[in-house]
Amino acid sequence: MKMFDVYPLYDIDIVKAEGSYVWDSNGTKYLDMYGGHAVISVGHTNPHYVEMVTNQIKNIGFYSNSVIISQQKELAGKLGKLSGKEDYQLFLVNSGAEANENALKLASFHNGRKKIIAFDKAFHGRTSLAVAVTDNPGIVAPVNQTDNVIFLPLNDKAALDKAFAENEICAVIIEGIQGVGGIRIADKEFLVQIRELCDRYDAVYIADGIQCGCGRSGKYFSHDWAGVDADIYTMAKGIGNGFPVGAIAISPKFTPKYGMLGTTFGGNHLACAAAIAVADEMLEKNLIRNAKDMGDYLMDELKKIPGIREVRGKGLIIGIEMDYDTAALRKKLLFDEKIFVGSAGNKNVIRLLPALNITKEHADIFLPAFRKLLTE
Q: I need a surface site. Which of 1, 165, 255, 321 has the fewest CB within 10 A?
């Protein structure tokens, strides 16, 4: 059997990692300013993380949710403390797409409606409902197409009012900061309006925090910058630091019923150990504050570099918009300067998603390398 070749982008075999660095099979060392799509939150092979996962697998790695898994309650407590949503309920899954899928299903169970509001350039995943609310026709198969999704321009308050007035809306799903869409930020006033309209029409506010959540923006959920509470928050990527973990935090107004949601692997012993280790590191080392401080430093310094159209983001989800497709620039950063970065938007945005525990030393390796390539 051979691979179904939709990957990889670069012909590099990464075989080792530590902190904010990775090494390929030839022994070449790279600075990781991308974290594998915002997944690495507390650094590669973080010692506490490795210890927790190793100790867990020595005892038990998996059993199904037909039995008590005490680590789930421990994780719920730590996530409540990190996020400030201590009265919310936790449901664990395996991925961001599955988290969004279950959030949308739960919303429809709650009010019995079908119409979902999503936004231009949104990305919510590649499973059935998640891909239907993703604004990327190239990955929406015919079987996923539905007339139940209304796409609106981001931050268009008039369009949002009109959509609610003319439809029986089930839910609004929105990233506080669009990652794949180009690091586009939802305005505070717009998120406040979503909260008000969802309350008025008994719709469900779903905050997608798959990429912009879990502390990356400088608050646990990026929606917290607007001072609003969503009904459901979805999480993945950084919550497990590389182990497949997804979750939804559910408002107390939702009442669980046996069989309403389900998952085979979600919340297993090993996944919980990984997520608990991440939460421990974030709490002990105040990594949410570090994300804010390091993000401020990076963005302030980037704004001083000529040749950049715009720098935007919050914390350590940063977009550097250029006037051209950045593919060649990203390739030169990788092969000439040995630095991983990503892209977003219409491929004219460099996307930075480093681990939340990066230091000024790491930033000061990236910044002069980036400046040098732009002057060349």
A: 1
